[in-house]
Design goal:
binds uracil
């Protein structure tokens, strides 16, 4: 598929406008600081010292919240452990719960098309994770307690990957990292800061499947991400 076909597939027109330039890059090498309260219990400390294999096992065995009772399997993430790009969604849906990989359903197909539109590919310089690793029943939004219980896993993923750019997909992921109420329409088009790493907020692909109007905005966001990454290099 060439870019025009991909954009057509996404339902996007070819015209877009870049928003304001990104803020100056900060030192991305600094350690990930927990963005919220004192999650410094022994579990958090143990997770913060894990490598990928231990993390995979800990996530698979996790019983820190009630989502473990209804999941088929926990879904850690997928991709390049040295990725430049880290995309963070909300949580696994039915397809992901079945297959053990994030974004493999319809929203995932759109995410793959979005990545392709800026010459990215799942697994190549890209890592995809979720704010929660277990499927919320009926695909409901994860509750704050569930996101908080899962936070040490995501924090460790970020720390291990040290991505050049973090992209949050949808409100729950944005709020988990920015630790504040987020309205995507207001937060997009800017470079936010997460522990010294640049972070860009955009719409969730599942939302875009329902909201054709915002697909054009998502295309603006993709262009903004690509421009931001170029300026980071
Ligand atoms: N939606 C998400 O937020 N994550 C997935 O992995 C799948 C759908």
């Amino acid at each position: 598929m060439n870019r025009d076909q991909i954009l057509k597939e996404m339902g996007l027109g070819p015209i877009w406008k870049l928003r304001q330039p990104p803020k100056k890059k900060k030192d991305a090498a600094s350690a990930v600081a927990a963005p919220v309260d004192a999650r410094t219990d022994t579990r958090t400390a143990a997770i913060a010292a894990m490598g990928w294999a231990e993390l995979q096992r800990a996530v698979a065995d996790c019983q820190a919240c009630a989502l473990c009772k209804t999941r088929k399997q926990a879904v850690l993430g997928v991709g390049d452990p040295d990725a430049d790009w880290l995309f963070i969604g909300e949580g696994p849906g039915a397809d992901e719960d079945e297959r053990g990989e994030p974004f493999v359903g319809k929203a995932g197909q759109l995410l793959d098309n979005m990545l392709a539109a800026i010459d990215l590919k799942r697994g190549e310089r890209v890592y995809i994770a979720n704010a929660v690793k277990c499927r919320p029943p009926d695909n409901r939004t994860p509750e704050p307690g569930e996101t908080a219980a899962c936070w040490p896993f995501l924090a460790r993923q970020i720390e291990l990957i040290q991505p050049k750019l973090i992209v949050t997909l949808g409100k729950p992921a944005a709020q988990t990292l920015l630790q504040q109420e987020v309205k995507i329409a207001d937060a997009r088009g800017q470079v936010h800061d997460f522990a010294g790493m640049p972070l860009i907020v955009t719409y969730h692909p599942a939302y875009l499947l329902r909201s054709l109007l915002d697909k054009a905005k998502a295309w603006e966001d993709l262009c903004f991400m690509r421009k931001t990454m170029k300026e980071l290099r």
